[in-house]
Design a protein that fits this description.
Domain M23ase beta-sheet core: 180-241
CATH class of the largest domain: Mainly Beta
Protein name: M23 family metallopeptidase
Transmembrane segments: 12-28
CATH superfamily of the largest domain: Glucose Permease (Domain IIA)
CATH architecture of the largest domain: Distorted Sandwich
Largest sheet: 9 strands, antiparallel
Radius of gyration: 20 Å
Distance between the termini: 36 Å
Enzyme class: hydrolase
Number of helices: 5
EC number: 3.4.24.-
CATH topology of the largest domain: Glucose Permease (Domain IIA)
Amino acid sequence: MSGRKLATIVHRSLRSAFLVLIIAHAALDLGYPWWWNFAPIVLAYAMVVVAHRWGGAPDSTKASREPVEVAPPVSGRWTAQNSPADRTPSHGTHAYGQTFAIDIVAEPEPGTRPGFRRLWPLARRNSAYPAFGAPLHAVADARVVRATDRQRDHSSRASLPGVLYQVFLEGAVRDLLGVRGILGNHVVLDLGGGTYALYAHLKSGSITVREGDRVRVGDVLAACGNSGNSTEPHLHFQLMDDPDPDSARGIPFRWRGIGVPRDREAFEAPSAQSAPA
């Protein structure tokens, strides 16, 4: 087990201990001051501060690396969100190797994707989104090193109350559950040379590959879904230096013929059959 993964497990365990102590103190007379319950959470975030100060930014060694060019994982018209072209870490954290990750949503024509609402509807069915069920392709010739397909697709969080619930309740619980809670159904490909591609939030029951399978660029791996820590059907894609997201550091990427689209930038990806090798 790497030191990075061990630190992640300890951090997650301390946060879980904090929640257990808060609940236990509310239900039982534990005989010590209530503020002692915060000791685990203080230690958890002290670990983060120390690691950042003495070890540098978790992924700083990759920031100056030349982007790895791969084929796009989708075809058709999509729009980027949380793009590393606008900031890094793109999702506000280096955790799970997602420093240079990107989210993309399908939008075949402007206005075909349901918009965000302040109050109503609180949520929408996944079938309302063009991304749901869209095929996802291998970005290079590779070997499958992880394929997890056990989680259901939940409804979208299409409103302000839905997003608040996602961020402050569901997201916090999922983070305590670790990789599978956050990423949902996911596939990891070994591209060679210490580079791994991660596809997250995949549709339940859609994964067509198993660990150990060899795939060619353009092969269909799964369908876009809404599992894990996701507000609507979309693809979360990233490159990293380890097959285990708990241990991984992010690696910058470029999609062949596209580059790295910026936030809210629409792009057209060629079909897998016409994409250059």
